[in-house]
Amino acid sequence: MTHVKVCGLSTTEQVDWAIELGYDAIGVVVTPRSKRFCPPATALPIARHAKGKIETFAVAYSMEEIGELYGHFDTIQLYTPAAIDNLAYSSCTPPPDTLKCKYFFYDASVGSGVYEAIPSWVNSVRHRLYIAGGLNKDNVSEVISTFHPFGVDVSSAVETSTLIKCKTKMARFIAAVRVLDKVSES
């Protein structure tokens, strides 16, 4: 079954939606560079609320931005390599051969939500592969069918125009993934 992560959450209510809808993981963006920035004073209660209920990712560009949040999230998702056990490395280029990470996120959009053609080299990634960047309920089935990733990651496609998560859109996205999972199981 394909793992599904919803990123850019900013409230505990959104965490509850993710759990209720059957998501496998949530992401909280903790880099001030992002329009989805969640400051530590908000991110920490979200991590505590989700602990033990759903896998949590703190998303930043570099380890320096994680700061006091390290140890409160299950996985640290970064766009720069780091020597930590719970690294999810994000890039639009192949990960270095020497990089040890829990997951590799192929993400050409870097949070912009714009979908781009996915290169065939992602099939040779030796880490658990997540595909991110511009995925929505209409294109996620084709991405999964073509690349068979460990997981997919959604953010902007499940938001309102004001960057707030929408439970209905979250439900439609995960339904598109789960329909495909049921077809592949039969």
Question: How would you portray this structure in words?
Answer:
- With 186 residues, the protein is α/β, with parallel strands linked by helices.
- 26% of the residues lie in helices and 21% in strands.
- The chain has 4 helices and 8 strands; from the N terminus they run βαβαβββββαβα.
- Strands 1-2-3-4-5-6-7-8 form an 8-stranded parallel β-barrel, surrounded by 4 helices.
- Helix 1 (12-21) packs parallel to helix 4 and helix 3 (140-147) runs parallel beside helix 4.
- It is globular, with a radius of gyration of 15 Å.
- The model has no long low-confidence stretch (mean pLDDT 93).
Number of E-type strands:
8
Task: Note the total helix count.
Answer: 4
Alpha-carbon Rg, integer? 15 Å
**Proportion in β-strands:** 15-25%
Query: Overall pLDDT, averaged?
Result: 93
How would you spell out the order of helices and strands?
Answer: EHEHEEEEEHEH
- How far is the first residue's CA from the last residue's CA? 12 Å
In spatial order, strands of the major sheet run 1-2-3-4-5-6-7-8
Assembly state (oligomeric):
single chain
The helix-and-strand class reads alpha/beta
Helix content: 25-40%
Structural topology:
Blueprint: E1 3-7, H1 12-21, E2 25-29, H2 40-50, E3 55-60, E4 75-78, E5 87-91, E6 103-107, E7 128-132, H3 140-147, E8 151-154, H4 167-185
Helix pairs in contact: 1-4, 3-4
For the structure shown, list the relevant keywords.
single chain; 186 residues; alpha/beta; eight-stranded parallel beta barrel; 26% helix
Question: What is this entry, summarized?
Answer:
The chain is an alpha/beta fold. It has helices spanning 12-21, 40-50, 140-147, 167-185, and strands at residues 3-7, 25-29, 55-60, 75-78, 87-91, 103-107, 128-132, 151-154.
